[in-house]
Automatic annotation (TrEMBL), chain A:
Biological source species: Adineta ricciae
One GO molecular-function entry: translation initiation factor activity
Main location: cytoplasm
Compartments where found: Cytoplasm, Cytosol
Quaternary structure (record): Component of the translation initiation factor 2B (eIF2B) complex which is a heterodecamer of two sets of five different subunits: alpha, beta, gamma, delta and epsilon. Subunits alpha, beta and delta comprise a regulatory subcomplex and subunits epsilon and gamma comprise a catalytic subcomplex. Within the complex, the hexameric regulatory complex resides at the center, with the two heterodimeric catalytic subcomplexes bound on opposite sides.
Recorded family membership: Belongs to the eIF-2B alpha/beta/delta subunits family.
Biological role stated in the UniProt entry: Acts as a component of the translation initiation factor 2B (eIF2B) complex, which catalyzes the exchange of GDP for GTP on eukaryotic initiation factor 2 (eIF2) gamma subunit. Its guanine nucleotide exchange factor activity is repressed when bound to eIF2 complex phosphorylated on the alpha subunit, thereby limiting the amount of methionyl-initiator methionine tRNA available to the ribosome and consequently global translation is repressed.
Descriptive protein name: Translation initiation factor eIF2B subunit alpha
Sorted UniProt keywords: Cytoplasm, Initiation factor, Protein biosynthesis
Automatic annotation (TrEMBL), chain B:
Family per similarity comment: Belongs to the eIF-2B alpha/beta/delta subunits family.
Pfam families, per database record: IF-2B
Subunit note: Component of the translation initiation factor 2B (eIF2B) complex which is a heterodecamer of two sets of five different subunits: alpha, beta, gamma, delta and epsilon. Subunits alpha, beta and delta comprise a regulatory subcomplex and subunits epsilon and gamma comprise a catalytic subcomplex. Within the complex, the hexameric regulatory complex resides at the center, with the two heterodimeric catalytic subcomplexes bound on opposite sides.
Protein name: Translation initiation factor eIF2B subunit beta
The species this protein was found in: Adineta ricciae (Rotifer)
Amino acid sequence: KSGCELFLRFITLAKFDTFAIDECRQKLIERGQVFLERTLSSRQRIAEYSQEFIVDGSIILTHSHSRVVLTLLAYASKFARFRVFVTESEPDKSGAKMRDELEAIGIPSICILDASVAYVMEKVTFVLMGAEAVVESGGIINKIGTFNIAIAAREMNKPFYVASESFKFVRYYPLNNRDLPDHFKYKASTIARLSEQNLEMEHPLVDYTPPAYITLLFTDIGTLTPSAVSDELIKLYI
Amino acid sequence: MLPIHILKLIREVSVRIIHGRNEGSDISLTLQAVLNDRATMSTTNEDENDNLDENLQLKKQQIQADLTESLPMSNVEGSVSVQRLRPDIMDDLNWYSNEIDLSVKNLAQQALAHIHANEIILTLGYSYTVEQFFKYAASKKRQFHVFILEHAPFFTGHKMAVNLSQANIPVTVVTDSAVYAIMARVNKILIGTRSLLANGGLTAKSGTYSLALAAKNFNVPLLVCAPTYKFSPTYLPSFDPVMCNSFPSPENILSYQSSYQSSLDIVVPMHDYVPPELVTLIIGSGMGNAPSYVYRIVSELYSAEDNDLERS
């Protein structure tokens, strides 16, 4: 949602003086392509920025399947040796897919149960997540189970890093987990199928992790603390 | 475009300086930011920023020397731009060195706002900034008592005690290990730091982390005096002490003359990392700031490209 909004703003808030419709069209298309290039290269830039944080001998915990984290780890594996624990992340078991892809790159990785996160946390050097959205408070919305891991990491004093592209920054400020709107938490088909009250019986697909639990965010605009996110957000959207 | 030559030159010099010197803060980054701004807007008189340590004069000469070296290398059109930029750059460097000299004075002016009458203030070791801070408050006839942690094994606390007592400030020197024991009596803590990281954390003298933990336990505010040149855009990539710390000689602990087994390992770390959660307030040249606000100050002081010199 944020990606689309940013795209629209980017292509329409361009400056030009003529009214010729063809030229306008051309300009819109050009800017669209610039936006596309920037977003495609953003993962590579994230990987470069965060490279110094991955040292030899790190043990990294990650959650579910994230393409950003995959690119990041693939790039870092050229410079450092490390191991990865991936949570299975029910209900779709996408963690297993992540583990397979990591093994294919040559990074030793183990798939663990969601329930064993606290058990494993003492061995871990730091936690690295992707995000489905980064909200105005500096918190993130990500696959269900992220908040569990954040709480365990905080308790054991492990850094909790989030890697996300800047187009995922969304102008939204949830106060707590209950505050998330239904269309984030459940698939559209589920909402269509059930009425208001029955949604309570369904399990949500995402959760909100408040900024207090996040140490740093790696984005293509640089490494940010959660408090810097709202500043960057404003810069992106004006 | 000539400004790019200048920037490249400055970057190379800065990288060499950063690699050569282990101590000192990340001055070359903001010096670069200053010159960056100047190069990109050579006519406007922007407000640039400051960051330096005692080697400023040396640095200025070095950059001047490099600039004159680069002249023969550029083409005719290029050399005209350098000549034009030169006086502006010299102005900026002068402004820069003045800012450094004044930044501690500006900081000290805020002493009365933070030091209240009859307070007991704890500090660690010797810091020029903190000394000036205390002296200013004393000169305005504020009564307060200072506890100074010795900061073993370098014992810089003793020097601080001597200096402060010369200004007629009542001092008490305390051993580092007693920090937890006296924390209940202390009203606030005022320390200096080697540098401030972009996330609001500190790299400060060894012993500061235990001080900060004791303070957290007793809910004693931890105030950090940091002139603008101590703000750094870097983050600490890992908490591994070997990577991110320097270790001076263990002569102070066990002299070379004494005989001991070769399996004995003496570790003397120079610095501690203090996470931002333990810091209450960062007192800068302007006003007090929360550690979570440091990113904003850093983004104003530095240009985004200078955050990592190695990658050009």
